[in-house]
Amino acid sequence: MRAPAIPPLSSGPTPLYGAYGIVKRFGDFTANDGIDLEIRAGEIHALLGENGAGKSTLMKILYGLLEPTEGVITHRGDVVRLPDPDSARRLGIGMVFQHFSLCENLTVAENIALVMPRALSGRALAARIAALAETYGLHLDPARPVWSLSAGERQRIEIVRCLLQDPRLVILDEPTSVLTSGEAETLFVVLERLRAEGRALLYISHRLDEVRRLCARATILRAGKVVGACDPRRESARSLAAMMVGAQVSALKPPAAAARAGERLRLERLALPAPGLHATDLRDVSLGVSGGEILGIAGIAGNGQAELFAALSGEVRAPEAEAVRIDGRAVGHLGINARRRLGAAFVPEERNGHAAAPGLSLSENAVLSRHATAPLTRFGLLRRRGARALAQAVIAAFDVRKAGPDPAAGTLSGGNLQKFVVGREILAEPGILVINQPTWGVDAAAAAHIRQALLDLAARGAAVLVISQDLDELFEIAGSVAVLHAGSLSRAMPRAETSRAAIGLLMGGSADPAGPPPALGAPAGRPEPAHAEVS
Amino acid sequence: MRLDLRPRSRRSPLLAALSPVLAFAGAVFIGGIAVALLGVSPAAAFLTYFVTPLSEVWSLQEVALKAAPLALIATGLAFCYRANLWNIGAEGQFVVGGLAGGWVGVATHGSEGFTLWILPLMLLVGTLAGVAYAMIPALLKVRLGVSEILTSLMLVYVAELLLDYMARGPLRDPAGYNFPQSVAFDGAARLPYLAEGETLHAGVLIAFGAVALATLVLTRTLFGFAVRVVGASPRAARFAGFSDARMTFAAFAISGGAAGLAGIAEVAGRIGQLQPTISPGYGFTAIIVAFLGRLSPPGILVAALVIALTTIGGEAAQIDLKLPLDLTRAFQGLLLGLVLGADVLARFHVRLVPGGPASPRA
């Protein structure tokens, strides 16, 4: 489809691909708000931003998975339309997803053949796989079943699938999030080679040190808008992070020096085998949270956060009762409601489908987690008036915006539903609160509200455990921070005695988390900003 | 070209209420074409199927007698299906309930004196036998992870053969000229008739009571809430502390118990003795009834009456118009398909989108 060419944003050759004035709205929510992006041949272009900044939306638009509400996409200066991934692929756009879509019980070759045109199969395909493996060092045994492969090898299949279509632009979504550091090094070599061939790469990552090493240009998104473009090699990780995070929306009131009420939550050498291939073993996790304290658990997604939360909540029972203690009582064998009756409350990461049932009304969702601890039943009968009153109390206390008197939870926006599920637990006035990713994908105002509520709860004497990928959040509210990496938890370090760099090192597994913490301020002789991570 | 389904942001209550009616009209229309192709006047067939059975006292009673076990079984099944548990073996639980309860009737044959306890005991034993029989697939699922669909279905054939054996063997009436059936139950082992000289018996009241009770449980109790959450959001249910295993046992117990009670009500009601077969497939038809009634007990009651009506009407059509009985079954299947289809149309916008099939990566 030809249309008048769009003048490029900057001087120089016509960009290979351009996106101009991209707006994407989901209902009232604007995920992308007038984004401009130019990608040139032979560059690795970084797309940076916090969770919820609009990176995934933009990436999906470029790959034809979403159509923009407004704005145009160009290919070599011509306006193009990408109604589906097939058209994107025909224009030479390929994508390597963060979450692999592979069939476990098929072999490498079969998984690749699955997405190839039917004409290309059998021996011809095997030859091309071998050729690619040779050229790029993407070594794969075509006959091996996928279930026997490591994450890095699985990613290679995805990359090979992508390269077989000879793309001009490869979009990589958090490619290193599942890789070990050795595997990541191998990947970087492949990416460099692709760049040297004149292909363009759009590299989406949280890991600023990688971006500074690989990318010559970066576009930084915040709240759906482009807030900056730079050469990451000339920036420090700190300055990049500052651009991503922006100014704080509202300063939080620090907790009044809370009375230390003794240890209320304790994990003692908790070891849990992973429930499945994609899960993480918990290895000898020990921690303690006192009343009045907020302990932060930092870590990159997929390092055992979900498993740790399930073990704390009782959704998964511990092998020994003594592994989990609430106010001194061994509760490892108790279920979630028994732990709630002992004064604990829990907020899981996933709002829709875990913390709340999207098809049920808000008052029914109040019953969901509070039926054991609030007077919501009598002789097994639901007290619907009580449930409605509880839901109303949460809505009023946490300023939950909604349509209608008692709408289905799924109709609320992410931030409002998160305020509801957090408020539902906090109004129970728990002695122990365990919360996983409290402000994930939530707008800044709602995030500030939730963080303040956590600080206030701790100030009233509760022990609060916050699992978060957002280091800024942890440094803002947590009194001390421990790092979860590959299922092992580091020692908790008081906020005043640690730094983002030290935490970042542990998050990347650069120091043995079970061992002594790194020397403060001078992490293992490596330049400090290079390892800071902001997620 | 591909079909694209998008959820309607606003669900019209009128459309939701109207969709089964439209589906029924559509089924009648398509059925009418089939009847016409068989060389019979569609108008005459419509009268025979849907009007005549409602115009006479005896056929009205027949409709109610057919609807009662269907409603009772389907109400129990609704608990399973709501919780995403697939008990396909209600037929077997029905048969085992009838057999166990009927065995009490045979064993107490000829009892003298105070006999008021016999019927309640039969109903209780029938119900418990249904519960116990449904526990087999539940236990296999919870302990070993075996698909309940296969086990519950296969146990149907075990139950049917067990009844066949018992009726021809150990429980056969010794004075019955070798007919494969038990003694006829005493009056104390029969469900009482609701009116003198009529066929309607107290089993109909049991079904009504069960539907009312199930409505209350599903909408007003914490257990009913748990059933709904387990089906709608399994992870949220675990977060609420509702155990998967307990829910599996409870839902299978309820559906097995309801099917067992329906079985003994059929044996102690209409049949009055044990025979090699006691069910014309009630347990399977009830699956259709449960979904026609959208897994809500009041809806199930209506659906049971509609299906019973088409069955009675189908028998009449077979006799009067020489229409095959298979036509009735085809019509029931058609009705289910259209009701489910109408539900989809009421909940989603359907659009034809140009272009190939959606990408597997999308």
Automatic annotation (TrEMBL), chain A:
Q: Which InterPro entries match?
A: AAA+_ATPase (IPR003593), ABC_carbohydrate_import_ATPase (IPR050107), ABC_transporter-like_ATP-bd (IPR003439), ABC_transporter-like_CS (IPR017871), P-loop_NTPase (IPR027417)
Q: Which domain of life is it from?
A: Bacteria
Keyword check for NAD, yes or no: no
Q: Which GO terms describe its molecular function?
A: ATP binding; ATP hydrolysis activity
Q: Report the protein name in the record.
A: ABC transporter ATP-binding protein
What range(s) does the ABC transporter domain occupy?
17-248, 265-511
| UniProt-annotated stretches for the region Disordered | 507-535
User: Which family is this protein grouped under?
Assistant: Belongs to the ABC transporter superfamily.
Species of origin: Methylobacterium planeticum
Q: What are the record keywords, sorted?
A: ATP-binding, Nucleotide-binding
TrEMBL record, chain B:
What GO cellular component is one of the record's annotations? plasma membrane
The UniProt entry, under InterPro entries, shows:
ABC_transp_permease
List the subcellular locations. Cell membrane
Query: Is Transmembrane included in the keywords of this UniProt record?
Result: yes
A Pfam family found in this protein is BPD_transp_2
Q: Where exactly are the transmembrane stretches of this chain?
A: 21-51, 63-81, 88-108, 114-136, 148-167, 200-227, 248-268
Q: Tell me how this protein sits in the membrane.
A: Multi-pass membrane protein
Keyword Transmembrane helix tagged:
yes
Read off the CDD domains from this record.
Answer: TM_PBP1_transp_TpRbsC_like
Q: Which domain of life is it from?
A: Bacteria
Q: Where is the signal peptide?
A: none
GO molecular function terms listed in the Swiss-Prot or TrEMBL record: transmembrane transporter activity
**Chief place of localization:** membrane
The name on file for this protein is ABC transporter permease
Q: Which organism is it from?
A: Methylobacterium planeticum
